[in-house]
Design goal:
The chain is mostly beta strands and 385 residues long. It contains three helices and 27 strands. One of its GO terms (cellular component) is extracellular region.
Length: 385
């Protein structure tokens, strides 16, 4: 960030502070003060300075008066449009209240009056920076969503971020009840916030990402602010202990459903339903499954809840009915009978946790949704601050 600060005076004294000119003669005497040459008492200054270049767009413009009060301040763009601003109660400082545009020229003009009733004036023009690139960011969950108690907050960037600390400092999470949580960078394009433990049910969450004008490094700047407000729903947790061939659903800690299931094959870690805590990522009434390696394409299944980007779902599989509740024969998904799959599907929210235990393999941490596969200390260590 470039910082410049120059103090402007509306008029400069032509000589010393006092302009008394003494004349001596045979009779003595003193000349009258030339009031027209005495500068106004009020002294105006502005930031950024006149003729400043590459001014950050997120930096407020300020006009300040010393020994006086402001009577008029305008800040206009090249087209003559006025930038909004506010005076402090004492009318000694005016501060712009909306962001500036990239690569634009602005002009300020101000007047102030001091105790001497003289008017001081100040004008100046400056130019804002032109970024090498403007980087778009997206925020999830979206506005007004209702999510499960394991739902992370995710900010994704259209380009790799060099100065991660600058980006992270612009992010703020507010909750209706106190929740301990932290940001972690899962890649150079994604930073997530998750609570230490599952969200308390019915928590209201407001996220503000003031990213416009943030310098990400290498001349890249944030393109726009993004915000979201969402609600955490009821506490529902799915638990699958793969050797049991059962999928249990818990609400507020109490078991509310217990479905027979068939999980990934026990004898092949490549086909296990892996250990770890994942979340419901999507709810799809029907999905098409393809895996040429294992001999199936365009296989349609109903009531599908994706639980990882590794390929695992909870879904109906009537073709595997003979093994459901008896043997693990899937390629990694949790297979349910159709009626049970529908009942679970209807109960699920995006962000519900799914806890898998008993397998020979663990979920890989290569997915962009692997927040709960990391312990809390590891998670906190991935913050840039």
């Amino acid at each position: 960030m470039i910082e410049r600060r120059t103090v402007f005076r509306a008029a400069m004294a032509a000589g010393s502070a006092g302009l008394l000119a003494a004349c001596s003669g045979q009779t003595g005497g003193t000349a009258e003060v030339d009031q027209a040459n005495v500068p106004p008492q009020a002294q105006l200054s502005a930031e950024p300075a006149a003729d400043a270049k590459d001014v950050p767009v997120a930096q407020p413009v300020t006009v300040t008066v010393k020994d006086g009060t402001l009577t008029e301040v305008t800040l206009t763009n090249a087209e003559g449009g006025e930038v909004k601003g506010e005076l402090n109660p004492e009318k000694t400082t005016w501060t712009s209240s909306e962001p500036l545009g990239f690569g634009r020229t602005y002009t300020y003009a101000a007047k102030a009056t001091g105790g001497d009733d003289k008017t001081a004036e100040l004008t100046g023009t400056f130019a804002t920076l032109t970024p090498a690139s403007e980087v778009r960011a997206t925020l999830n969950p979206v506005d007004h969503a209702e999510v499960g108690v394991a739902m992370p907050i995710s900010v994704k960037f259209a380009e790799a971020i060099t100065d991660r600390a600058a980006a992270e400092r612009a992010l703020k999470v507010e909750t209706s009840t106190e929740v301990e949580g932290a940001w972690a960078w899962l890649s150079d394009r994604q930073v997530d916030w998750r609570p230490k433990e599952y969200w308390p049910a019915n928590t209201e969450v407001n996220v503000v990402a003031k990213l416009y004008g943030v310098h990400y490094g290498n001349g890249a700047y944030g393109r726009a602010d993004v915000t979201t407000t969402f609600t955490v729903g009821r506490n529902q947790v799915v638990k699958v202990h793969t050797p049991e061939h059962r999928m249990r659903v818990f609400r507020d800690g109490k078991e509310t459903a217990n479905y027979p299931c068939s999980n990934g094959r026990d004898n092949d870690p490549e086909l296990n339903t892996p250990n770890g805590t994942v979340i419901v990522m999507t709810r799809e009434p029907t999905s098409i499954f393809d895996n040429e390696r294992y001999g199936y394409t365009d296989l349609e299944k109903k009531w599908c809840c994706r639980i990882s980007n590794h390929g695992e779902y909870i879904h109906e599989n009537e073709e595997n009915r003979s093994n459901i509740g008896k043997a693990n024969t899937s390629h990694g998904c949790v297979n349910l009978l159709e009626a049970d799959a529908k009942a679970y599907f209807d109960s699920a929210l995006i962000g519900d946790p799914v806890e898998v235990t008993g397998s020979k393999a663990d979920f890989p941490t290569s997915s962009d949704v692997m927040d709960w596969l990391l312990d809390w200390d590891t998670w906190k260590s991935m913050s840039a601050l």
